[in-house]
């Protein structure tokens, strides 16, 4: 009887630990921009950014460091006149860019 109980508990634990086959992509993400390196200064929060579309950094925003939601991938461009799918910096999941430059105004954020 103990062996049956143990097997049943093991099967239940294994079944509940399996990943869900239904994964949903995000439609929006959020980003935080700090005016100074190492996440210092008063942050600017950008929420509900559309996925796979270009979003301009708010005018007058200085970018010293940049953070996105966990699991998101963003591209920051600061040398193009328009927002396009090129970029100068990739920010990968869980690896925030602590120092992206001199804290000067940047031109765009591209969110994938």
UniProtKB/TrEMBL annotation:
It comes from the Eukaryota. Residues 1-17 form the signal peptide. Keywords: Signal. This is Uncharacterized protein. It comes from Pseudopithomyces chartarum.
């Amino acid at each position: 009887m103990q062996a049956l109980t143990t097997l049943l508990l093991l099967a239940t634990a294994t079944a509940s630990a399996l990943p869900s086959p239904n994964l949903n992509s995000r439609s929006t993400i959020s980003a935080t921009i700090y005016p100074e390196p190492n996440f210092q200064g008063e942050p600017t929060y950008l929420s509900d950014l559309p996925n796979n579309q270009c979003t301009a950094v708010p005018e007058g925003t200085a970018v010293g460091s940049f953070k996105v939601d966990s699991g998101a991938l963003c591209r920051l461009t600061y040398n193009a006149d328009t927002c396009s799918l090129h970029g100068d910096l990739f920010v990968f999941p869980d690896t925030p860019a602590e120092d992206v430059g001199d804290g000067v105004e940047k031109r765009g954020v591209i969110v994938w």
